[in-house]
Write a structure and sequence with these properties.
This protein is α+β, with helices and mostly antiparallel strands and 441 residues long. The protein folds into two domains: 96 residues, Glutamine synthetase, N-terminal domain (Ubiquitin-like (UB roll), Roll); 324 residues, Glutamine synthetase/guanido kinase, catalytic domain (Creatine Kinase, Chain A, domain 2, 2-Layer Sandwich), CATH 3.30.590.10. It has 14 helices and 19 strands. The longest helix has 21 residues. The chain binds glutamic acid and magnesium ion.
């Protein structure tokens, strides 16, 4: 502890940012002077439990306190906050790991894999918008000149955001992330930054660091960094695709068995579990009302939204929920609003169920599923992903495997809070309704 404190002190750090992630996938925390590092590592930094989304903790008594206990493996000075180092906390309540802390939920899921000698690695790909609020409070892309009909890989607009993108790149590299690529995505004002894949818990921690940095750097430039799944109805939304592989030491357990498929038998069984539990997984991977504006098949200005709607897998098939690649698969369902810890934990539970039951993922689909009608999808024995948050929540409630992975408290809190979110939306009268109905009858 002392060595760590002295080390940080020597790097100019005077304050710790003790950070955890709430149920909604939002970073929360507090500042603690470095002199109190010991307390952060032993008891943890204390918070009023019921003030944190999804804890279900009482207002009084020993279980009213939520402690974020620092994980020393995560200590990282923050380039955009000189003198401050982030340390990620695991939730503890009454001296015990807190079952509804998303990082603890993921730890439990990964421990099940570790019990078999396995390690999950994920590459999480954030897509995001850079926005501003224009006249009348309307949200619009921060860059007014970003207007191509097919904006993917737009090299006219990308350089206009070079200041932000470069600062983000430098910041992340300064935090030890290996940034692989940055591009303009399919919507106006939309970008993607990829960093190298890694052990699943580490990938989630890195994604949260990415979000913290991106919010701060965008705000400093008078822009809003947005991971809202679908800000503009006529343009593609933001995905948060997960590239997934399983390892035993340095041996890939998903590497194909020489039978022409992308994945080993174990990998196919894992994918089968992910498909079998796809409706329930959707609640965690696409957890907002707005998520379901993205997960529909349909035309957008650029010709396609590239977001899946069909529960299927196929080799290099970006139109399916699962796109297989040699030795790994891409889970394309999650959107940018997903809590990465909960989405990963649910994914592990589904995959393990596929392995335990020896499930078969069904035929690999090579067709362009975006051209299939719902009737064609059904005729091929395939299903569609839930088309609303309400449908996804019902699926989650009925899925024991995924609920067990989340644990009783988190399942109940998630369902309760997300149902309130759905009901609030459903009771809202939108401008679309007024336009359509006000003078119609
Ligand atoms: N933006 C698309 C989505 O919502 C994905 C585009 C891509 O494949 O990169 O999933
Ligand atoms: Mg993309």
């Amino acid at each position: 502890m002392n060595v760590l404190r002295e080390n940080l002190h020597a790097q100019g750090v005077h304050t710790l940012l003790v950070q955890f992630t709430d149920m909604h996938g939002v970073a929360k925390g507090k500042l603690v002077p470095l002199t109190h590092l010991d307390g952060v590592l032993t008891l943890g930094a204390g918070f009023a439990g019921p003030s944190i989304w999804g804890t279900g903790l009482p207002r009084t008594g020993p279980r009213a306190e939520y402690y974020a206990r620092g994980d020393t493996a995560t200590v990282q000075p923050l380039p955009w906050m000189p003198g401050v180092a982030r340390i990620v906390g695991d939730g503890f309540v009454d001296g015990q790991p807190f079952e509804a802390c998303p990082r603890q939920v993921l730890r439990r899921a990964l421990a099940r894999l570790a019990g078999r000698g396995w390690q999950l690695r994920t590459g999480i790909e954030p897509e995001f918008f850079l926005l501003r609020r224009g006249e009348g409070g309307h949200w619009r892309p921060a860059d007014d000149h970003d207007r191509l009909d097919k904006p993917s890989y737009d090299l006219k607009s990308l350089p206009r955001q070079m200041d932000f993108l470069h600062a983000l790149h430098d910041t992340l590299v300064g935090c030890g992330l290996d940034v692989l690529q940055i591009d303009h995505e399919d919507a106006h004002g939309q970008y993607e930054l990829n960093f190298a894949y890694g052990e699943a818990l580490l990938s989630c921690d890195r994604l949260m660091l990415f979000k913290l940095a991106a919010h701060a750097l965008a705000e400093a430039r008078d822009m809003v960094f947005s991971m809202m799944p679908k800000p503009f109805a006529n343009q593609p939304g933001s995905g948060l695709h997960f590239h997934v592989s399983l390892w035993q030491g340095e041996r890939s357990l998903f590497a194909a068995d020489d039978d022409g498929s992308d994945l080993s038998l174990l990998g196919r069984q894992f994918v089968a579990g992910v498909l079998a539990h796809a409706p329930a997984l959707c609640a965690l991977a696409a957890p907002t009302v707005n998520s379901y504006k993205r997960l529909t098949v349909g035309e957008s200005l650029s010709g396609t939204t590239w977001a899946p709607a069909t529960i299927a897998h196929g080799p290099n098939n970006r139109t399916a929920a699962v796109r297989t690649l040699p030795g790994r698969f891409e889970w394309r369902v999650p959107d940018a609003s997903a809590n990465p810890y909960l989405a990963t934990a649910a994914l592990v539970a589904a995959g393990l169920d596929g392995i335990t039951r020896g499930l078969d993922p069904g035929p690999a689909i090579t067709a362009d599923l975006f051209t299939w009608t719902p009737a064609q999808v059904r005729a091929h024995g395939l299903g569609l992903l839930p088309q609303s948050l309400a449908e996804a929540l019902d699926a989650l409630e009925g899925d024991e495997v995924v609920c067990d992975a989340l644990g009783e408290t988190l399942t109940q809190e998630f369902l309760r809070l997300k149902r309130v979110e759905w009901i609030e939306f459903a009771r809202h009268v939108s401008p679309w309704e007024l336009e359509r109905y006000a003078a119609a009858f």
